[in-house]
Amino acid sequence: MKVQYELTPEDLVEFAMLSLRRPAVARAIRMRQFGVVMLFGAMGIGFTFLDGLGRLPAFVVVGGMLFALVLPSLWAAQARRQVAASYADGRNRALYAVHEMMLTPEALIVASEFKETRLRWRGIEEIGETENLFLIDESSVMGYVVPRRPFESGGAADGFLKAARAHRARACSGMLPEAPSPQGGAEV
User: Does the domain spanning 2-7+93-172 belong to CATH 3.40.50.11220?
Assistant: First the structure.
């Protein structure tokens, strides 16, 4: 089974936004938000002990809290700018080239005019999906983004995803050691 596709900046922005929701990344974002709130809160409390500042302490506290709430949107905007810049500068030809992804029983093969990659199914960590994309993760920081657009129908896209998951499941079926069996009847 194979598919030809071309990534667009919108595909990569969606992928970047998904990576912000991964548990480790989301936890880091929440910690930064908490840190910003605490910093501005401490500054506001500190300013209350200075005479003649009027409403500055309240402004600092409220401003810090609003900034912490807006922080994820700022990161999203930054991701969009970076993807647009990478597309516009023309130096990422291999990323934006036409790709062909082929599913074989042994491996996932991705080829373009610039490169060819063969990844055994056992090397794939996770296969996920969104409304518009398939995500085939080789690791937590590397993977393949496949848009649903090139498939003729939703059924064809779902068939591709089902085949990829089946190949991976077959390849990984004997990889993990079995859990030790419980010992019956402990002696006292």
Answer: no
Cα pseudo-dihedral 152, 12, 16, 114, rounded to 10? 110
Q: Tokens 């998951």 belong to which residue?
A: 165
Rounded Cα gap, residues 135 and 152, in angstroms: 19
With CA atoms as reference, report the closest residue to 110 among 98, 95, 100: 100
In the chain, domain spans: 2-7+93-172, 9-88
Which pair of tokens denotes residue 77? Answer: 């905007």
Task: Indicate the residue type of 57.
Answer: P
Instruction: Tell whether pTM > 0.90.
Output: no
Quick: pLDDT tens for 33-73.
777 777 777 776 666 666 565 666 666 667 766 776 776 67
